[in-house]
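Office hours follow-up: a student asked to see two folded examples consecutively, so here they are.
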Amino acid sequence: MSDKQQLSLPLPPSPVRDDTPLVPARMVNEWVYCPRLAYLEWVEGEWADSGDTAQGKRTHARVDRGGKQLPSPDDIGDEMSKARSITLSSERLGVIAKMDVVETGEGVAIPVDFKKGKRPHVAAGAYEPERVQVCTQAMILEDNGYEVPQGALWYVGSREKVPVILDDELRAKTISAISALRDVATSGRRPPPLENSPKCPRCSLAGICLPDETNLFSKKYTPRPLNPSDDPALPLYVHTPGARLRKSSERLVVETEEDSMEVPMIDVSQVVLLGPVSITTPALHALMSNEIPVSWFSSGGWFLGHTFGTGNGNVAVREAQYHGAFDEHKCLALSRNFVAAKVQNSRTMLRRNWRAERDMETKDQALEKLKRIVKKVPKTDNIQELLGVEGEAAAVYFASFENMLAIHPRKNLPGFSFSTRNRRPPTDPVNAMLSLAYALLTRTFTSIISAVGLDPYMGFYHRPRHGRPALALDMMEPFRPIIADSCVIQTINNGEIKPKDFIFNGPACSLKANGRKALISAFERRMEQETTHPLFGYQVSMRRLINVQARLMARHLQGEIPVYPNYLPR
């Protein structure tokens, strides 16, 4: 292309800030395909692997092996040559690219981008996002002094090479895409999701983007089940006193005095250490590198904290969270939301699990009291008043809790009598189980909230206090009866935990190793159970549902959805 032609094209506007990073050419491709996807990946640093992305990585890994160095523009001879995995940038355009292959010869350079699939049968020979990406690479080469007559795409699936014509129209689209992406990154405004788009079902970020869920509040169509299937990785619990966790190649090894076991690291979503167990530094480094959090608990089941890597770098969502946390009206609105959902779900638990042999009149009275309390929640004027309403609901709920247990405490199992909720320390077996179940739920919410990019320690209802994951405690309120309480009821009613599984130390009661293991197993089973989301209508596991709720909270705080929708099973 001549100098005259180059100067006739529109140039991108100057960056608003000097620290605006160079846009990767791959992100320009994503922007043309879906602006929201490009923003989530490049600006917010979100990523999720899928079968397609894994296959793409394997394709590019093969391309990156071997190859000659790229000669300077003046050193290109007549002989054809290929340079692989070449990184160049253009300050004029504000872009950078890692090019799969650059073919040189006869004084010119041709960028060739590799794609994993088969060549699409479209008029231009390839889809627009791919052609824009190649055009970006070509213009980078030109700004580095190379003559580039055209570009090309190589489709690995069909082993076909498709030329990309670098006409003025394609160049103008490319410059416009680069400029738009840089502008939106500077402004910090996330593009809206696509509406009912056929692109969404195969997108690896569908479960992060939540396009249909976000659009539900403004576009009244039924959300599709776009959330990817649950990660098969599961938490690894280590609770045998004296156990040691170490790393061996890509596996985690749990060693005890009696034996040892190995677990592939890829099968572990997080590590939970309870009591006097240890972990080696290499194992800790490997877990942090693989973004696998380590949760620490005391022997009595108190949640102590997390160890994880650099974490989610999405500053924008935390900025919105902090703004909300210092807004009294926002705090009160969210707090009412949490408490109302908790009381409704407590009522649902009593309605579902009240034993048939118990007094039905007492049941009706308890349900009616909780129904009245739910109506009082929106009328509270401040957090202190709301705390009083929540306390009133808790008194009604826990006064009836014993009626959900299968065996009456005054007959054969006095160890499971329950009259009131107590803690610090719990003084009876049921309260000991509830405390551990709530600690496990706190750990789950803290981990998921951190992964989403929110700060688990800055809450709206529970006020910030050193070491207390206030937002995790806020968001888990509606889930306490549905997950934690149901696990306790299930293990007692199924006979999985017996009075012999507890130990008393003065007034304090705690679970022995076998009882703790049984409750943890029940908790993990509950997390894997599928439920129908009452708002979106699709089936998800409880673990995945909590992730969806955390992302909905982020969307609400950033103004994408008007209200935070709590989980309210029927």
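And the second, which I mentioned at the end of office hours:
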Amino acid sequence: MALRKHEITKQAADEVLLITSGDLRLPANQECWPAQRDMEERLTAAFAQKGIKLVRAFPYNEKEKHGFISSQRMGMDVFMNIHPEARLVFATAAWQYTHHVLPGLLSHQGPILTVANWSGQWPGLVGLLNLNGSLIKAGKKFSSIWSKDFKDDYFLTALGEWLRDGKITHDLSHVHELDKSKLPAESAQLGAQLASDLKYRKAIIGVFDEGCMGMYNAIINDELLNPAGIFKERLSQSALVAKMRTVSQAEAEDVYKWLVARGLKFNFGKNPATDLTLEQVIEQCKMYIAAVRTAKDFGCDIIGIQYQQGLKDMVPASDLVEGLLNNVDRPPVYAQGTKEELYPGAPLPDFNEVDEGAAVDELVTNRCWTALGIDPATTLHDVRWGEYYKGQGVDAFVWLLQISGAVPASHLVGGYAGASSERQSVMYFPLGGGTLKGIGKPGEIVWSRVFVEGGALHADLGRGTVVSLPAEETERRWKGTTKEWPIVSAVFHGVSRDQFMARHRANHVNIAYAPTGEIADKALATKAAMLAEMGVIVHLCGITQAA
């Protein structure tokens, strides 16, 4: 029997409670636990340095061999025994399902601090940003901080402020609300026309099972989307599997042969339990065809696949599929039993992990880049990690962006011929499936994020450059994150590491390339104008024009 509020003892003045959330899957929680345990020990030492005892709000599970909250029900039960006014720290060193702890955090009345270790190993930073974006969407006040070893001055100063004042103040001077009057006339006119066109011929985003991995921040309510001219078609992943069964072996093999002819290398092995096999890839080719046909059946302008839970137990991963969908040059798909090509000569934009903020972003990018005659291939990425780098013409903080699905070949050095497909992690995908792996090509980009705050749609837009790092540095970064996934080394202009972390409202960031800085300026201005005319509150971040 859980204690009632009046029966729970409030923490001592020199104590702070710690909670953490993990994955839904036991193998993932067990594998990530050592990193979490190490981070908690370092964090405990940092609090002790301030004269505060950090106390876990729930124990390590001896049977399951980890100390994560592993379900929404468990999280609710843990919070039933936490005093509602306690000072509370959420700490993560791994990807985590936000909905495990969101119900308890939303009703908590005391100061909340979210913390992550600065590491790319088990995407704790990604988990932190997802929780932060979810809390912002929900209108819940909190503070956030991050650190590599929890000994640096930035972290210790911020921690001291939170312990003293119950909040942390970050520098957000890089963020400026869009002044539409300052947009170039040509871009303002084009953006307004594209927004008008969208509201006239409304767009459909096809959502294969809404909500993914606890990402509350990735769900946008219809009443916010509809005034902008965007409507949802709620689809089912089970229907996608059923559609796959109508795709012939020959059709799937044609897709595979097309990819081989383009130079994509498949790193096959013999053991389907641990290796990528031809049979898995053929199933992915069937999914690709089924996804395009389903999109056409429902008149979708863009689709997203929930990606893990449920689907992973039925078929191989959707990663390769989503990368193909986002590319202009992709295997042709025909209406069943005909030679009518579907969505010819264009991407069928895909928002990985059914992140609807990314869906709005990609839809707008597709319209703007197409109107400007630029390759409209776009993708979201996890904000995985980053580190300062100096050498080979680079002298900046370089972010490492990664996502296993949705990355188009045109974003990679050498395109398909420079890419490979490797088996997704056994820990997450028991039935395998290949990725679309490669190195992000150098060039100018526009980065962005659409999110919900204060009951309204917002968008952050900025300029950036994907840089080329030495092969050994790229390999070092790859080994410290996920070797099977594509990697992008990005510099965000005029935005420091800590400014970006303090401001960013999601675990994902969208990027799209532009041929030159001048064209990137025009693309960003057009996108800002279109979003603003759609009713989105637009913020420009950092340096948004080429020098």
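Two things to take away from it. The chain is about 35% helix and 20% strand. The mean pLDDT is 96.
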